[in-house]
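User: Predict the structure for this protein chain, please.
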Amino acid sequence: MKIDTSHFASEGARWTKEVLEPAVASSTNVCEVLRYLGIEEVGGHHTHISRRIRALGIDTSHFTGKSRTRRATRRRSDAGLLVEMPIAGARRVPSSRLKTAMLARGATDECALCGTGPNWRGGTIPLEIDHIDGNWRNNRMENLRILCPNCHSVTDSYRGRAKRARSARAGVRR
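Assistant: Here is the predicted structure, written as C-alpha coordinates:
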Protein backbone atom coordinates (compact mmCIF):
# COMPACT_ATOMS: atom_id res chain seq x y z
CA MET A 1 0.00 0.00 0.00
CA LYS A 2 1.45 3.30 -1.08
CA ILE A 3 0.63 6.62 0.59
CA ASP A 4 -0.02 9.60 -1.65
CA THR A 5 2.32 12.48 -0.69
CA SER A 6 1.91 14.59 -3.79
CA HIS A 7 -0.10 17.21 -1.86
CA PHE A 8 2.71 17.79 0.68
CA ALA A 9 4.73 20.95 0.24
CA SER A 10 8.40 20.28 -0.37
CA GLU A 11 10.81 21.16 2.40
CA GLY A 12 13.06 24.18 2.07
CA ALA A 13 13.10 26.94 -0.49
CA ARG A 14 12.84 26.22 -4.17
CA TRP A 15 15.57 28.04 -6.01
CA THR A 16 13.93 28.36 -9.40
CA LYS A 17 15.26 30.17 -12.43
CA GLU A 18 12.73 32.97 -11.79
CA VAL A 19 14.12 33.53 -8.29
CA LEU A 20 17.82 33.16 -9.10
CA GLU A 21 18.06 35.10 -12.39
CA PRO A 22 17.45 38.59 -10.90
CA ALA A 23 19.76 37.80 -7.98
CA VAL A 24 22.56 36.70 -10.32
CA ALA A 25 22.00 39.64 -12.68
CA SER A 26 22.44 42.18 -9.88
CA SER A 27 25.50 40.49 -8.32
CA THR A 28 29.18 40.17 -9.16
CA ASN A 29 29.85 36.92 -7.27
CA VAL A 30 28.00 34.09 -5.51
CA CYS A 31 28.32 35.70 -2.08
CA GLU A 32 26.42 38.73 -3.35
CA VAL A 33 23.74 36.37 -4.67
CA LEU A 34 23.47 34.85 -1.18
CA ARG A 35 23.14 38.30 0.39
CA TYR A 36 20.51 39.26 -2.21
CA LEU A 37 18.51 36.14 -1.31
CA GLY A 38 18.97 36.70 2.43
CA ILE A 39 20.93 33.49 2.92
CA GLU A 40 23.81 33.16 5.37
CA GLU A 41 27.21 33.20 3.64
CA VAL A 42 28.55 29.79 4.60
CA GLY A 43 30.15 27.06 2.52
CA GLY A 44 27.13 24.77 2.18
CA HIS A 45 24.87 27.54 0.95
CA HIS A 46 27.56 28.84 -1.40
CA THR A 47 28.03 25.37 -2.91
CA HIS A 48 24.30 24.67 -3.20
CA ILE A 49 23.43 27.98 -4.87
CA SER A 50 26.46 27.69 -7.19
CA ARG A 51 25.26 24.25 -8.31
CA ARG A 52 21.68 25.48 -8.83
CA ILE A 53 22.90 28.44 -10.91
CA ARG A 54 25.02 26.10 -13.04
CA ALA A 55 22.23 23.49 -13.37
CA LEU A 56 19.73 26.13 -14.49
CA GLY A 57 22.20 27.52 -17.04
CA ILE A 58 22.09 31.08 -15.68
CA ASP A 59 24.75 33.35 -17.20
CA THR A 60 27.53 34.30 -14.74
CA SER A 61 30.01 35.73 -17.26
CA HIS A 62 29.77 39.12 -15.50
CA PHE A 63 31.00 37.66 -12.17
CA THR A 64 34.32 39.26 -11.27
CA GLY A 65 35.75 36.55 -9.04
CA LYS A 66 36.66 39.13 -6.39
CA SER A 67 36.82 38.44 -2.66
CA ARG A 68 33.93 36.50 -1.16
CA THR A 69 33.89 38.64 1.97
CA ARG A 70 32.52 42.09 2.65
CA ARG A 71 35.73 43.22 4.35
CA ALA A 72 38.32 45.17 2.49
CA THR A 73 41.18 42.90 1.56
CA ARG A 74 43.79 45.63 1.97
CA ARG A 75 46.47 44.39 4.33
CA ARG A 76 47.73 47.15 6.59
CA SER A 77 51.36 48.09 6.21
CA ASP A 78 53.79 47.39 9.03
CA ALA A 79 53.90 51.10 9.85
CA GLY A 80 50.09 51.22 9.86
CA LEU A 81 49.94 48.47 12.46
CA LEU A 82 51.93 50.54 14.94
CA VAL A 83 50.03 53.78 14.41
CA GLU A 84 46.39 52.83 14.10
CA MET A 85 44.32 51.78 17.09
CA PRO A 86 41.93 49.10 15.79
CA ILE A 87 38.20 49.67 16.19
CA ALA A 88 36.38 47.97 19.06
CA GLY A 89 35.28 44.94 17.02
CA ALA A 90 38.63 44.42 15.31
CA ARG A 91 40.60 41.22 15.59
CA ARG A 92 43.84 41.03 17.51
CA VAL A 93 46.92 41.73 15.39
CA PRO A 94 49.17 38.65 15.52
CA SER A 95 52.30 39.23 17.59
CA SER A 96 54.46 38.02 14.70
CA ARG A 97 53.17 40.93 12.57
CA LEU A 98 53.68 43.40 15.41
CA LYS A 99 57.23 42.14 15.95
CA THR A 100 58.04 42.41 12.22
CA ALA A 101 56.68 45.97 12.19
CA MET A 102 58.67 46.90 15.30
CA LEU A 103 61.90 45.49 13.84
CA ALA A 104 61.27 47.41 10.61
CA ARG A 105 60.92 50.61 12.65
CA GLY A 106 64.25 50.08 14.41
CA ALA A 107 63.52 47.95 17.49
CA THR A 108 66.23 45.46 18.40
CA ASP A 109 65.58 41.71 18.38
CA GLU A 110 66.38 41.27 22.07
CA CYS A 111 64.63 41.51 25.42
CA ALA A 112 64.06 45.14 26.42
CA LEU A 113 64.61 44.29 30.11
CA CYS A 114 67.49 41.79 30.30
CA GLY A 115 69.02 41.99 26.80
CA THR A 116 68.59 38.30 25.95
CA GLY A 117 68.54 37.74 22.20
CA PRO A 118 66.63 35.14 20.19
CA ASN A 119 69.41 32.56 20.79
CA TRP A 120 69.72 31.12 24.27
CA ARG A 121 71.69 28.12 25.56
CA GLY A 122 72.35 26.80 22.07
CA GLY A 123 68.75 27.07 20.87
CA THR A 124 66.25 29.69 19.86
CA ILE A 125 63.62 31.17 22.15
CA PRO A 126 60.57 33.04 20.93
CA LEU A 127 60.76 36.66 22.00
CA GLU A 128 57.30 37.96 22.90
CA ILE A 129 55.48 41.25 22.43
CA ASP A 130 54.37 43.02 25.61
CA HIS A 131 51.65 45.68 25.62
CA ILE A 132 52.93 47.88 28.44
CA ASP A 133 49.49 49.22 29.41
CA GLY A 134 47.88 45.76 29.11
CA ASN A 135 45.51 46.87 26.32
CA TRP A 136 46.04 44.58 23.31
CA ARG A 137 44.29 47.09 21.04
CA ASN A 138 46.89 49.77 21.81
CA ASN A 139 49.54 48.92 19.21
CA ARG A 140 51.43 52.20 19.26
CA MET A 141 55.20 51.77 19.17
CA GLU A 142 55.65 53.46 22.56
CA ASN A 143 53.26 50.93 24.16
CA LEU A 144 55.04 47.84 22.80
CA ARG A 145 58.27 46.15 23.79
CA ILE A 146 60.00 42.89 22.93
CA LEU A 147 60.60 40.66 25.96
CA CYS A 148 62.00 37.21 26.59
CA PRO A 149 59.48 34.72 28.06
CA ASN A 150 61.09 34.95 31.52
CA CYS A 151 60.87 38.73 31.78
CA HIS A 152 57.42 38.80 30.19
CA SER A 153 56.04 36.30 32.72
CA VAL A 154 56.77 38.65 35.64
CA THR A 155 55.20 41.79 34.16
CA ASP A 156 51.93 43.24 35.44
CA SER A 157 50.30 42.88 32.01
CA TYR A 158 51.29 39.25 31.29
CA ARG A 159 48.44 37.05 29.95
CA GLY A 160 45.63 39.35 31.06
CA ARG A 161 46.93 40.25 34.53
CA ALA A 162 46.24 43.93 33.86
CA LYS A 163 42.64 43.07 32.97
CA ARG A 164 42.21 41.05 36.18
CA ALA A 165 43.77 43.86 38.22
CA ARG A 166 41.33 46.39 36.71
CA SER A 167 38.41 44.05 37.49
CA ALA A 168 39.58 43.61 41.10
CA ARG A 169 39.84 47.37 41.58
CA ALA A 170 36.32 47.74 40.20
CA GLY A 171 35.01 45.07 42.59
CA VAL A 172 34.21 42.51 39.90
CA ARG A 173 34.71 38.88 40.98
CA ARG A 174 35.72 36.23 38.47
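The first strand starts at residue 119 and ends at 120.
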